[in-house]
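Example 3.2
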Amino acid sequence: MFVIAHVSDPHVDGSAERADRVGRVARYLRGLSRPVDAVLLCGDIVDSGVREDYEEVLALFAGTAPVLALPGNHDAPSALFAALGDQPGPLSDSPHRCLVLGGIRFVLLDTTVPGQVGGALGAEGLSWLDRTLADPEAGAARTIVAMHHPPVPVGHPFVDGVALADSAPFAEVLSRHPAVVAVLVGHAHTAGASSVAGVPVLLGPGVASTLVLPFESRPGDHAVVTSEAPPALALHLLTGRHLTTHFRVLG
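Structure, written as tokens:
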């Protein structure tokens, strides 16, 4: 069994409150009797792309498991990967990365678009993904695709307006590659499950805050997220090709 701790949207900003929320997640992972095999930071790791904030996050997770990270719309990819240093999966000529850990192939996509909240892969990114998933020499038996922006609607008008713009061609690419076990995403600040091209899509809950669905709002309250909810994470248990997900709220 391979266990992935799916951690998304910490939005660390130098404040003690955000650091404490991330610290609660890290302490939970350290307290497990069986260590997880990977920590996946699924975007919006920090709030303003400051390298020192990335270093703070990595220090909090030090000693838990290998850290895999990909950028969200709040991140600065160059600062993120500079902070990662010699972590698995160094950047190549592409902003996207592919690495194998514990016999699992992780395809980490950069769906950010400079200056925009929403995301896209574009023609080049989709072509890169198609070629990478087709590569028979890259541990293709079990593949996890991870990115920040959801390729599916989540049921909130704001979030759905800033999701993955090219979700239809993304689904077409996935439909050609049965090795993909799941797509792991962030951005929506909510625990959730859906599917695309028959592949499970699992949304990581927000560490910094939690999405408020329109029908959960109080009259006159138009907040998209609330920080009143405690931080949360997802644990994905992969046995063979079977993936089971457990969500944990750290109250």
